[in-house]
Design goal:
heterotrimer; A alpha+beta (about 260); B mainly alpha (about 120); C alpha+beta (about 350); B: elongated; C: about 350 residues; alpha+beta; 11 helices; 11 strands; about 45% helix
């Protein structure tokens, strides 16, 4: 033991120790560089959702419907958004447009903003104030609600905006707190179904009888769950009224 | 929300008291209790974050030194005995939390199909 | 060791240490951020950055935690211990950057304050999956900040090494919290398992090395019999310039040094950080601590002027060739006349 070189911090390192220390130094730099590559390369694909700034600002006119989350059923479209389409709306940041949309419920309105798109899901982030949403002239056609029966679905409750591309990745448990914050801010929640249901894997999810997503369900946000509830088709959008007491983790039996 | 707000206010309060303690300690106290600090000023700003974070400990030690309350021998008694329990607890904790975390991990249930339980009104 | 405190007492080894440390961190971050394949559409830059800094902090913390037990098990690693505090401070900065990206992205853009949002957005405390794992990250970050903020030598002297060391035991709680933060966070989502494997390798290395160092420590000879005087070793076992360490019945450790044929006993705990003086050696007639090179006159336990550190000394005697110390320590800096080894076989001289 006594023959071993003795290192004193403020003195030059002893000769035999120098080679060892240089080796450790090289290993450390190379090791951290390699770890950086492996950890960086191991990241998952965040999925196809994104803000479509390349589409430019979209302005269409349609009927506002509170489901209770505000939806617009397009009456007068443009070259991208066709009459008959229905989509959800949000404001900038983690907030919805409820206060602006409520007075216009059932009326014709003009909406303007940037589209967020993920596969066949899209929603619009409206411009601020009346530039984003204002009453339009004309009579609002009736939007029929078509009940589709009661369904048991398996999948994940997400906040619609992050999922659609405001955040990449915008779902999963690491993102759960952010999703909750969006939902608390009235961003519409979306259920991603494990397999397409009535032609789509994305459904607007609400509480029973047209209520908002109940707080009980927040514990299950971003987890993979199975639950039951009625599906209604509003315009071309499916709305699933989830029943909170039927929610369980996917793969678990109902007690 | 209220709890969260209270916690944030608590942290702000902690920091404000810490700032007061830092001001008094670094301007007056440090010269009284450590001769090596007398005339040394450049290093003092480095101590501010520490005082902000652990000001109760600072006040306690300041009082101890001023009142000569601590036995000198305590300074030379390394805390070896706690090392074992500390690393064993840490190791067990890590093993438990990793196993717990991986055991509740879910994979995307794409094998579970939607089930229609009852027909819609117009179907 | 200075008479007056300075922000950092630089020397060539510290410059070299910091250069290697910064190069490693820069290599990790640069490779992670710019050399790994990107998706289209890409992961948000803020999330990409947050992940890079978070992963980097985990790797740095794992390396730091391996240094201690490695140096215990193999003395060649002691130089890595020498300036470890700079590594720790850097880790706190990297972890804080990670937290900053998370806070300003996931918890920003909402109508509530982002700190309040961080604490209340997810309140699913009753479950493992979906648990607000951010709490573990906050706790670990606070620990790292406390440790970094109290890393200046002033704190050692002010708090005393045992209190300082107890405070710095928070690192173990912090590392557990980091493991929990990762296990209940990114590990729940990540489909590519390379990160999971690397994480378990890192945490596994920390666990194995610490348990090994602890077991090695436990195998060290324990206190022998009680009594007024305590036997250390036979005088012929001593080697010029080095010490034998004995554990006294009260648990304190004493280092008995042989210098110029005479024996002196001082406390084994360095006044700076309670480093093991008995594992040091005598350089230029001064006991030199293996951790940070603090020096003491072996006869008085005093650092040479202008330094002011002092360690306790012990009374020492020779009984039939057996070296014995009295377990009651003298106040730090008390001079004790060294005991000459007489009528012994020729000393095993130390050529160094």
């Amino acid at each position: 033991m006594s023959e071993k070189p003795f290192f004193v911090g403020y003195l030059p390192a002893p000769g035999p120790l120098r080679g060892f220390l240089i080796l450790i130094s090289v290993l450390l730099i190379a090791g951290l560089g390699t770890a950086g590559y492996l950890m960086g390369a191991a990241q998952d694909d965040p999925g196809p959702g994104a803000f479509r700034f390349d589409y430019g600002r979209q302005t269409v006119t349609g009927v506002v419907e509170m489901t209770p989350y505000p939806v617009i059923h397009v009456v007068e479209g443009n070259d991208r958004i066709k009459p008959g389409d229905s989509f959800m709306m949000t404001a900038g940041g983690k907030s919805g447009v409820d206060s602006r949309a409520m007075p216009l419920n059932g009326q014709l309105a003009q909406v303007s903003g940037i589209v967020l798109e993920r596969g066949d899901l899209y929603m619009m982030q409206l411009r601020g104030g009346r530039n984003g949403l204002r009453a339009a002239e004309g009579d609002a056609p009736d939007i029929a609600a078509e009940p589709q029966g009661r369904w048991q679905l398996t999948g994940e409750i997400c906040d619609g905006k992050c999922l659609a591309g405001a955040m990449r990745p915008g779902r999963g448990l690491a993102h759960k707190a952010c999703a909750n914050l969006c939902l608390l801010g009235d961003v519409p929640p979306i259920f991603v179904s494990s397999q397409p249901v009535l032609g789509t894997e994305f459904l607007l999810v609400t509480g029973p009888q047209g209520t908002r997503l109940p707080r009980d369900a927040y514990d299950y946000v971003a987890q993979f769950i199975t639950a039951e509830g009625n599906i209604t088709k509003r315009g071309d959008l499916l709305v699933w009224e989830i029943e909170p007491d039927t929610i369980r983790l996917a793969g678990e039996d109902l007690e | 929300m209220d709890t969260a707000q209270a916690l944030v206010m608590l942290m702000q309060g902690w920091g404000i008291i810490g700032a007061l303690v830092a001001a008094v300690f670094l301007v007056i106290g440090i010269d009284r209790i450590d001769e090596d600090a007398q005339g040394a000023y450049i290093f003092r700003p480095l101590l501010i974050p520490g005082v902000l974070l652990i000001w109760p400990l600072v006040l306690w030690r300041w009082w101890q030194i001023e009142s000569d309350a601590a036995a000198w021998a305590a300074r030379y008694r390394p805390v070896r005995a706690s090392y074992g329990p500390a690393v064993v607890l840490m190791s067990l904790g890590i093993i438990v939390i990793v196993i717990a975390g991986l055991s509740v991990r879910q994979s995307w249930p794409d094998e579970i199909a939607p089930v229609q339980l009852s027909a819609g009104a117009d179907q | 060791m200075s008479v007056k405190y300075t922000p950092v007492q630089w020397n060539a080894n510290k410059w070299f240490y910091d250069a290697i440390m910064l190069a490693s961190v820069a290599a990790f971050l640069w490779v992670f951020l710019y050399l790994t394949p990107q998706f289209d559409p890409a992961t948000n830059p803020q999330i990409h950055n947050a992940r890079a800094f978070g992963a980097c902090a985990f790797v740095m913390l794992s390396v730091i935690l391996c240094i201690g037990p490695l140096a215990r098990l193999d003395r060649r690693f002691l130089p890595l211990l020498y300036n470890r505090r700079h590594f720790g401070v850097m880790t706190a900065f990297v972890a804080m950057t990670h937290a900053g990206y998370i806070l300003n992205w996931y918890f920003n853009f909402s109508s509530s304050d982002k700190y309040v949002g961080l604490l209340y957005a997810n309140s699913s405390f009753g479950q493992i999956a979906g648990f607000p794992f951010e709490i573990f990250g906050i706790f670990a970050l606070i620990c790292l900040l406390v440790l970094a903020a109290t890393s200046h030598d002033f704190w050692l002297k002010f708090l005393t090494p045992p209190v300082w060391k107890r405070l710095h035991y928070l690192i173990y709680a912090a590392y557990f919290a980091v493991a929990a933060h990762i296990s209940l966070g990114i590990l729940q989502d990540q489909q590519n398992h390379i990160f999971t494997v690397l994480f378990m390798l890192g945490a596994g290395a920390v666990i194995v090395l610490h348990i090994a160092a602890w077991l090695a420590e436990r195998r060290a000879p324990a206190a022998a019999k009680d009594g007024a005087w305590h036997e250390v070793a036979h005088s012929s076992d001593f080697k010029e310039g080095f010490a034998k360490i004995a554990t006294l019945p009260n648990g304190d450790r004493v280092a008995v040094f042989l210098m110029e044929g005479k024996l002196s006993a001082i406390a084994n705990a360095c006044a700076h950080q309670n480093g093991p003086l008995g594992e040091g050696k005598i350089i230029d007639c001064l006991v030199t601590c293996p951790w940070h090179g603090f020096q003491y006159d072996v006869r008085s336990g005093r650092s040479p002027a202008p330094f002011t550190e002092k360690v306790p000394t012990y009374r020492i005697r020779l009984e039939n060739g057996m070296v014995e110390v009295h377990p009651d320590a003298n106040p730090p800096g008390t001079y004790v006349e060294p005991v000459e080894i007489v009528s012994q076989a020729p000393l095993m001289g130390e050529p160094a």
